[in-house]
Design goal:
71 residues, alpha+beta, 3-stranded antiparallel sheet, 20% helix, elongated
């Protein structure tokens, strides 16, 4: 993620059914920064996958499966 104004998050369709909790700490238009410490967090997501392979897929492909949009 790059620095900018938060304009939304897109969750990939292959993992969206497993998202059970989303807690965003920013609103549209808020200034956001690349993560370097906890104070730059934008929120938390909790997923409940069926298999270890699904978890590994998210970890390996997180930048493709979860897009944080900034302008």
């Amino acid at each position: 993620m790059q620095e900018g104004e938060f304009s939304g998050i897109v969750i990939g369709p292959s993992i969206k059914p497993y998202l059970i909790e989303k807690d965003l700490w920013v609103e549209l238009g808020d200034k956001v920064y690349p993560f370097s410490a906890a104070n730059y967090s934008i929120g938390t997501f909790v997923f409940n996958f069926d298999t270890r392979e699904q978890v590994e897929n998210l970890i390996t492909n997180r930048h493709k499966l979860i897009k944080i949009n900034v302008i």
